[in-house]
Design goal:
alpha/beta, Conserved hypothetical protein from pyrococcus furiosus pfu- 392566-001, ParB domain, about 300 residues
Length: about 300
């Protein structure tokens, strides 16, 4: 009689299995684990939480809506990957765009490949999956490489093997992180390319980097023109210049914050009575609208 009851319980399907705390699965060696772990199953979206280790921080709303429209017509073609973190609870490892787009159109379930993984393995899988995407900007790739090296404790050689890239390629991306944060933001927003960034790295002084960066944007220089300008800049003899009056401390402290917020080098002029003028440059209609959006969102 007991055997018949057991067979009947297993025959209720995966849904019943996942909702039965007596049959909870926490490792690949647990009973019935082979029916869940390593398989693609339909999971309720409410049972899935987002990945706190997600290396991707920017999700374009327009492309999300396009993906949502595609899913509405064709369904989720490629399953997401999740890890089991508790009784009938799962956490995203990869596929957050598909997950977000599915929620956007009101789907209640989604196909998911289920794994057992610890925090470090989850972070590594998320980072490597992120690196393989085609729409990454160079800084996002560099930050993912840096996290793999720091958080997973990999050497550049080991990282090269994990992601299938030459070590020199990885080194070139990591060097971009030496650029001034304003220039990194410009690269992420598409104002300059990785080629421009690699040319600017040859300038050790970040203020010099920013000076050339402003010229690149203003004159819309190509990578080759930028490389030539950097060579000229490095070859120039330092000429004595008029000593500039130091800015008050309250201006110094705020100018960097302004520059990082707006993504541009900010010019500040201060009079003797401590009144002054702040100049925020823009380099195109798109750039102007981006700055305007930042100001409006700060209200």
């Amino acid at each position: 009689m007991a055997k018949a009851t057991k067979k009947q319980a297993l025959g209720r399907g995966l849904s019943a299995l996942l909702n039965d705390p007596k049959n909870d699965i926490s490792s690949v060696s647990d009973k019935n684990a082979d029916q869940v772990i390593g398989n693609i199953i339909e999971l309720e979206i409410d049972r899935i939480e987002v990945n706190p280790f997600q290396p991707r921080t920017q999700f374009n709303e327009e492309t999300l809506r396009e993906l949502a429209s595609s899913i509405k017509e064709l369904g989720v073609i490629q399953p997401i990957t999740v890890r089991k973190i508790g009784f009938n609870k799962f956490q995203l490892v990869s596929g957050e765009r598909r997950f977000r787009a599915s929620k956007m159109i009101g789907l209640t379930s989604i196909p998911a490949y289920v794994r057992i993984a610890n925090d470090q393995e989850t972070l590594e899988m998320a980072l490597v999956e992120n690196i393989q995407r085609q729409d990454l900007d160079p800084i996002e790739i560099a930050l993912s490489y840096q996290r793999l090296i720091n958080d997973i404790d990999l050497t550049q050689e080991q990282l090269s093997e994990r992601v299938g890239k030459n070590r020199s390629t990885i080194a070139n991306y990591l060097r971009l992180l030496k650029l001034d944060p304003i220039i990194q933001t410009g690269m992420r927003d598409g104002f300059i390319t990785m080629g421009h960034g690699r040319a600017l790295i040859n300038l050790q002084d970040q203020q010099s980097q920013l000076d050339i960066y402003e010229i690149i944007l203003k004159k819309k220089l190509s990578v080759r023109e930028t490389e030539q300008l950097v060579r000229q800049f490095r070859g120039q003899k330092t000429k004595p210049s008029k000593e500039k009056k130091p800015l008050p401390d309250f201006v110094k402290d705020g100018t960097k914050a302004f520059a990082e917020y707006f993504g541009h080098k900010i010019t500040v002029k201060v009079a003797k009575d401590k009144s002054g003028k702040i100049t925020i440059p823009f380099h195109s209609e798109e750039d102007f609208k981006r700055i305007l959006k930042l100001i409006r969102s700060a209200k």
